[in-house]
Amino acid sequence: MDKIKVIINNNQKNVKIPTGLRMLVRRCCNAVLMNEGFEGSIEISVTFVDNEQIKELNYKYRKKNIPTDVLSFSLGEEEDYSTDPATGSKLLGDVIISIEKALEQSQRYGNSLQKEVSHLTVHGMLHLLGYNHENGGMEKVRMREKEESIMSQLGFTGGVSYYYSK
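Above: the chain's sequence. Below: its structure in token form.
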């Protein structure tokens, strides 16, 4: 893999982003791409938002009028990604994380915020690469196994708190 550029934006003010969380998000993105054998220069955007912002996006794009924890917006289909003409990097897409929802879930499941954000980043990245759990079945099982494996590689053991809801 040539170069991975992870652009991280914090578009909320309700939750203080802990020191080191941005670096951890970059590690998660790298781990997913390495695990998947992704090649070439890559650019990804990860944005932290609040519950209201993610609720608006969830309604606009999925017609679900509730806040969710993570949304992914891929810029490619079946490995055919847009390319930044200035750098030649493949533009994978955007991962949007509600940091408020991540904090709520970390407290509910007894995890650290770092573990919860890591899992949401891994989950969102897998969506960018074409994995989908929405239809259930083996797709859901494969995605869950990938998440567990990557989280373990990152040093987070004991499973993840994430549950799939419709």
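Residues 137-153 form the longest helix (17 residues).
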